[in-house]
Amino acid sequence: MKTSHLVCTAAAAALALGAGAAAAQDRSGWPSSFTIGTASQGGTFFVYGSGVANLISEELGVSGAGEVTGGPMQNMALVHTGEAALGLTTLGPARESMEGNNPIAPGLAMDNVCAVFPMYETPFSITALSSSGIEQISDIPDGARIGFGPAGSTSDTYFPAMLEELGVNFERRNGGWDDLGGQLQDGLLDVIAFAAGVPVPAVSQLEVQTDVNIIEFTEEEQAQIVDAFPVAAFDIPASTYTTLEEPARAVSMWNFAIANCDLPESFIYEVTNVVMSDNERMMGIHRSAEATTVENADKNTVLPWHPGAARWFNENGASIPQDMIHGG
């Protein structure tokens, strides 16, 4: 029995050594550190991306952090050039960037950016102070001062055009979500038009400090925007904010995590595994991660998949076609 135990122990040790060698070999070409391009502080991208960076660092032993950026458009540029290994983007700005219509570098097709995993839908929602008397979009006064988030963000790219489509005349203001929330509370803005995963941290903070109105689209307004822009109908659940007593009509656009396509397949495979293998842990980072699931991989119809991410998804119930995989 003792000899048998020694043999088994030796075999186990040999397997462990072999596994360790394979793991070491598999890390060839891995970055020694990484950043994830997020957006401004006070927005969901920053909370979600910084949390994912910390999670990857803990699980894979590679130093990483979330980086404050201008949002989806800038993240496409940073990841394309390799200045950021990973980033977060929205599929509308992603398509424009791939087609050479990114305002950061007009004419440059940002085609070295690959999808890694689905994040969540970004609802487009509007917030005003209750004291303003603004309860619906038609109440927004002529020349209202509206904060649309950082310049070049998803909000700033699409929301002004959406409100113009609905006949709203406004003064356009830009800034980080925390800053704009403070300006709204101080009476320097009339409205904030958010495109961010819910709950938006800046709105949740405002609810604690003052009374706010979450302004929904009417059915007619929602249908008009869906017809005119690359968005889908969406209901913000009543449980999202204490202010809401019932779901609020909105529209939404999908967000995906992205990576530079030149990163090693093994690295992105492990990154995808860390994020996708425990949804409860992801929801601890931000509640919107409830949508970070295998089932939502098919929402990407824009970006090529990184081979490492595609391999993980195809091993775990998704069906990513070969012609949607970078280099495939």
TrEMBL record:
What is the residue range of the signal peptide feature?
Answer: 1-24
Protein name, as recorded:
C4-dicarboxylate ABC transporter substrate-binding protein
State if Signal is listed as a keyword: yes
InterPro entries from the entry? TRAP_TAXI
Q: Which domain of life is it from?
A: Bacteria
Could you list this entry's UniProt keywords, alphabetically sorted: Signal
The record ties this protein, via Pfam families, to:
NMT1_3
